[in-house]
Design a protein that fits this description.
Blueprint lengths: L17 E5 L21 H11 L4 E4 L4 H8 L6 E3 L4 E4 L2 E3 L6 H15 L5 E4 L4 E4 L7 H11 L6 E6 L2 E6 L4 H9 L8 E6 L5 H9 L3 E5 L9 E3 L2 H9 L13
Parallel strand pairs: 1-2, 1-10, 2-3, 10-11, 11-12
Antiparallel strand pairs: 3-4, 4-5, 6-7, 7-9, 8-9
The structure holds ligand L263DTV3.
The site of the ligand O=P(O)(O)OC[C@H]1O[C@H](O[C@H]2O[C@H](CO)[C@@H](O)[C@H](O)[C@H]2O)[C@H](O)[C@@H](O)[C@@H]1O has 24 residues, from strand 7.
Length: 257
């Protein structure tokens, strides 16, 4: 069921019995003009590391970026992670690698780069098995990028389009963030904990559905009207404040934020 932003309230402060899943762009990090223009606030890795210790390791980053990309952003911190919208998975020693990119994707990437030359500001993001076409810094390119992605899709059997915030991606159709969260919840250290997921974009809705079905907490970041999330935080700064608000001592479900 879709809850209105007007009815969503701030989530409670993080509690020690949570399994916490956090989206990256637009949730932990402020959005930037291009994927490589994001900045990680200096205090954030330490906040995440402290929270992960507090949760006995049950904190994972769940992103559309690759796991390598996530690790590069937060280095030297290396957390359990789901990358490429749930295609890749890492928890402890367990790793589900991303599929190998089909040969046709290289040609499509080159064609996209040529198209980008006509629209200054367009970014073609090579994510290995996935390809992101970004128009945040080039709004007039939106229609051309969608048309390009739709035309390219039939050349990539087993692929689908992933629509996101000022981006359309060509990605393998398998998996989503919800399935990745469900998989992590079946194994330690996530098992038998209250699942909590915060995210801002369309790709996060599958994660909200899974944590809702488990009786957990779904947290929408921003003011998108149509979402299954039950709680809301205004922006990434509010998310970082929420996570930092756990403080140094033990915390329990229901504590005031
Ligand atoms: O699931 P997420 O962690 O939210 O990742 C979703 C996509 O995030 C990145 O793109 C978005 O953030 C960029 C930097 O702020 C922004 O320029 C772009 O417009 C956004 O769509 C990332 O580049 C993608 O690979 C992720 O799929």
């Amino acid at each position: 069921m879709s809850a209105s932003i007007r009815t969503r309230v701030r989530p409670p402060a993080p509690a020690d019995d949570w399994a916490l899943f956090l989206d990256v762009d637009g949730c932990l990090l402020d959005l930037a003009a291009a994927p490589d223009a994001v900045t990680v606030p200096a205090a954030l890795p330490a906040t995440l590391a402290a929270l992960a210790r507090r949760l006995q390791g049950a904190l994972a980053l769940v992103s559309g970026r690759s796991i390598a990309g996530i690790d590069a952003l937060f280095a030297p911190l290396r957390l359990p992670a789901a990358g490429l919208h749930g295609l890749e998975l890492r928890s402890g020693e367990r790793l589900r690698p991303a599929p190998v990119a089909p040969a046709a994707l290289a040609g499509i990437r080159e064609e996209a780069a040529l198209l980008a030359l006509r629209y200054p500001g367009v970014v073609v993001e090579d994510k290995g098995a996935a390809l992101g076409l970004h128009w945040r810094a080039a709004p007039p390119a939106r229609i051309a990028l969608h048309a390009f992605a739709e035309a390219a899709l039939p050349r990539l059997p087993g692929y689908r389009l992933q629509h996101g915030d000022h981006v359309v991606e060509l990605r393998p159709a398998d998996g989503d963030k919800g399935a990745a969260i469900r998989t992590l919840l079946q194994q330690p250290p996530f098992r038998d904990r209250l699942p909590v997921f915060a995210g801002d974009d369309l790709t996060d809705e599958s994660g909200f559905a899974v944590v809702n079905a488990c009786g957990g907490l779904s947290v929408l970041v921003g003011a998108r009207e149509r979402s299954a999330a039950h709680y809301a935080l205004r922006n990434p700064a509010a998310v970082r404040g929420w996570l930092g608000a756990a403080g140094p001592g033990p915390v329990h479900a229901g504590d005031a934020p």
